[in-house]
Design goal:
The protein has one domain. Helix content is about 90%, strand content about 0%. The protein has helices spanning about 5-40, 45-70. The two termini are about 35 Å apart.
């Protein structure tokens, strides 16, 4: 593979990267909508535990992303 073919492949993959990010974002959004729907159907008694779980997941994700970013 010569240099021009390598650049063409890199450009093509560069165009696909945002598309995959969009697909992943849409799938995460669908999963969140389904999860919220199930949570609302269970009623307010489970909301407190669910909010604690979601809050700790968000904080954990933020900490992990910060640690990965600083390395």
């Amino acid at each position: 593979m010569n240099a021009s073919e390598t650049l063409a492949v890199d450009a093509f993959l560069g165009l696909l990267a945002p598309l995959w990010q969009l697909v992943i974002g849409v799938l995460v959004l669908v999963a969140m909508v389904v999860a919220v729907g199930k949570l609302l159907s269970r009623g307010p008694s489970r909301m407190g535990g669910a909010l604690l779980l979601v809050g700790s997941a968000v904080v954990g994700l933020a900490v992990v992303s910060y640690l990965v970013q600083t390395l």
